[in-house]
Amino acid sequence: xxxxxxxxxxxxxxxxxxxxxxxxxxxxxxxxxxxxxxxxxxxxxxxxxxxxxxxxxxxxxxxxxxxxxxxxxxxxxxxxxxxxxxxxxxxxxxxxxxxxxxxxxxxxxxxxxxxxxxxxxxxxxxxxxxxxxxxxxxxxxxxxxxxxxxxxxxxxxxxxxxxxxxxxxxxxxxxxxxxxxxxxxxxxxxxxxxxxxxxxxxxxxxxxxxxxxxxxxxxxxxxxxxxxxxxxxxxxxxxxxxxxxxxxxxxxxxxxxxxxxxxxxxxxxxxxxxxxxxxxxxxxxxxxxxxxxxxxxxxxxxxxxxxxxxxxxxxxxxxxxxxxxxxxxxxxxxxxxxxxxxxxxxxxxxxxxxxx
Length: 356
Known about the structure:
Strand order of the largest sheet: 8-7-9-6-10-11
CATH superfamily of the largest domain: Phosphoglycerate mutase-like
Helix content: 25-40%
CATH topology of the largest domain: Rossmann fold
Order of helices and strands: EEEHEHHEHHEHHEHEHHHEHHEE
Number of strands: 11
Number of domains: 2
């Protein structure tokens, strides 16, 4: 993949922001964008922040090799090891960038002229022009410290809600693309979850999988807070193929070798179905789309076990084994916050206190 990054400061030091783009090396397609306002800083600090955000985005996309292209001669030469890093403010940023770069098999750095870095430059300027920039600049002057993890900017708060009970969940059957409605108990669970989440202030959108069990759950909340349900295809459950509607034992008996491998390998697909790796890519794209539209706001996403686990995995930045070790209950509530600089934090996992 290709990472293009840029940063700028109006005053040097002054109000500063960064931008980063991740592209497919073959097609040139934009796979991810990052931008963020970092307060009062120098151009060089902003350039490094852009690099770090771009590398984190590429790691999230499971890149193995990365070509970094920047119009900052200083950052390119320092990260290539040809120039020493003398300034104290640069050293921790360079170490952080080197740490993230260490996750890839290979990272190459190339200087490019500014006219070839227009998309990252545009994102950096958007960050410096953002509505939060004056406030953030004031905070950077000392009125407020950044998030303890070092995250900068206003996070997008994502409240993840699993749908209520269906007939297939009663019998613990694989329930993927089959479009099953909620049971009476499922409707009651959705009503209780809606009553709880309706007390959350500032919900900007209720976004749901297209399947009716998720739509019915989402509608309960939307009706209470006066919003329309927005549907996003990327939040749909895994396609379990020929295992749809089967129990664990039935699927294991039908395809013993594939089922055994599937339980520990996220690249394995159920027959005529979808692998967890494919779900990961789909959910990542959905999250990017949603944050591009509603960035910095509080959102409720109503979905299914695998997409919710996948989004939590992405927020925690952990490996695929997380999927096999995390349990989610019907109408369980989880919360993750995604920052514009690529940081994220998980605030809550599988809370069902509203059912008590």
